[in-house]
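Kindly draft a polypeptide, keeping tokens residue-aligned:

***
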Amino acid sequence: MFTIYILVQKLKTRVVKQNINPEWNDDLTLSVVDPKQAVLIRVYDKDTFSLDDKMGDAEFDISQFIEVVKMRLDNLPSGTIIRKIQPTRENCLAEESCIVWANGKVVQNLFLRLRHVETGEVELQLEWIDIPGSRGL
């Protein structure tokens, strides 16, 4: 199971039992209140009779993703790379992350290296969703 935090929002994935390399493939929706606020992910090993074991955490910045969303791009060929983000000491990226135009949407795939653990990575895909009635960006 992993938990995602952004400001006061907290979302959890379902538990994948008896798997040392779990795949969740869950869709989670967060409201972006402050685009400068980093997103924190915590990964846990679910225990039945004791507290869950923390398996590591990772943090990622969504400000560049939001900048691309604000560009209001349209009619680009699917697969067009809009921006590349390199791994640094300041982010948890395990490899280069590209923000791309895919099937009419802004999408970013991230491979995040978990901190506070010997080894571990989490793969995420960000996608911007305009919610009717929201203030938008």
Notes: DSSP finds one helix and eight strands in the chain. Residues 78 and 102 are 5 Å apart (CA to CA).
